[in-house]
């Protein structure tokens, strides 16, 4: 439960998924659960990220599009795979971009077998540039999933050679946050979403030797981020796998000033995804 009640700040959760658990058997049930979770935690708006593969328990693009179309508080990020059906996906994504139904595109290096210097991602980047939407990248330093594919070195190269491209590093290479930030923080077109900073009690029970940060450590990472680039940090939770409440608690308890809270919880996501809400 949230210890500090958030009555004061509007919140956009910039990293949401439909819950994957088997008990939610249809997209409707998944959406209902997500909406309930958002309501319970006072989340005003959310960015729903679709999976890049067709068969996914967090929903593919079509399923997630259907979910966001049924409510007025969710926006879609299109998940794309450069590995197969790329041409087909690009066409579908562009159609949705033209209709303003997509606010960003996400690549999942590490989850999938490609690296961020792969020439096949060029067309994806071009689509982001053409429609002025950010490119989200899965950057998590999880040793089981080829973290080197989204090594900060490649993201730095990408930011350097595409200065008009806004890049969102999802998970900020957790747990190797600080060393990765040092390689990328100078680029004003690189943004960071803090989802997965709170892995949850069960994870720590099951992985006592994990390098993922404790709450104290995660607070340290968050404060470092806010100190070096508060205009480029996004609140995100990675719900359905992780907890919105724990991520919100982390932010609300980090001792940030009112302006900083408004920035991370709302303003930055509103701006980068061009949601068009007033920045109150
Ligand atoms: Zn995620």
List keywords for this structure.
single chain, 280 residues, alpha/beta, TIM Barrel, 8-stranded parallel sheet, 10 helices, 8 strands, 14% strand, globular, binds zinc ion
Number of domains: 1
Q: Could you tell me how far the N terminus lies from the C terminus, measured between alpha carbons in angstroms?
A: 26 Å
Note poorly predicted spans: none
Cα gyration radius (Å):
17 Å
Q: Can you list the strand order of the major beta sheet?
A: 1-2-3-4-5-6-7-8
Q: What structural class should be given to the helix and strand makeup?
A: alpha/beta
CATH class: Alpha Beta
Would you give the CATH topology? TIM Barrel
Percentage of β-strand residues: 5-15%
Number of helices: 10
Task: Walk me through the structure.
The chain is 39% helix and 14% strand. The chain has 280 residues and is of the alpha/beta class. The chain has one domain: Alpha-Beta Barrel (TIM Barrel), CATH 3.20.20. The protein has an eight-stranded parallel β-sheet with strand order 1-2-3-4-5-6-7-8. It starts with 11 loop residues before the first strand and ends in an 8-residue tail after the last helix. The mean pLDDT is 94. The site of zinc ion has 4 residues, from loops.
């Amino acid at each position: 439960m949230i210890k500090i009640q958030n009555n004061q700040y509007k919140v956009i959760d910039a990293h949401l998924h439909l819950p994957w658990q088997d008990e939610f058997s249809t997209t409707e049930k998944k959406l209902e659960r997500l909406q309930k979770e958002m309501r319970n935690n006072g989340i005003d708006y959310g960015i729903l990220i679709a999976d890049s593969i067709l068969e996914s328990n967090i929903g593919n693009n079509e399923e997630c599009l259907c979910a966001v179309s049924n409510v007025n508080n969710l926006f879609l990020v299109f998940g794309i795979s450069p590995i197969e059906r790329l041409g087909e996906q690009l066409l579908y994504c562009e159609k949705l971009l033209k209709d303003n139904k997509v606010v960003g595109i996400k690549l999942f290096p590490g989850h999938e077998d490609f690296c961020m210097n792969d020439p096949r991602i060029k067309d994806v980047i071009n689509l982001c540039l053409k429609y002025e939407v950010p490119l989200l990248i899965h950057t998590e330093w999880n040793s089981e999933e080829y973290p080197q594919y989204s090594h900060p070195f490649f993201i730095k190269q990408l930011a350097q050679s595409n200065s008009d491209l806004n890049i969102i590093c999802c998970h900020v290479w957790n747990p190797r946050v600080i060393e990765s930030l040092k390689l990328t923080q100078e680029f004003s077109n690189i943004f960071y979403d803090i989802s997965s900073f709170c892995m949850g009690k069960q994870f720590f029970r099951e992985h006592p030797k994990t390098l993922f940060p404790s709450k104290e450590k995660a607070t340290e990472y968050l404060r470092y981020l806010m100190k070096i680039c508060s205009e480029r940090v996004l609140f995100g939770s990675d719900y359905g796998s992780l907890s919105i409440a724990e991520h919100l608690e982390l932010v609300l308890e980090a001792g940030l000033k009112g302006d900083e809270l408004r920035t991370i919880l709302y303003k930055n996501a509103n701006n980068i995804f061009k949601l068009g809400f007033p920045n109150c």
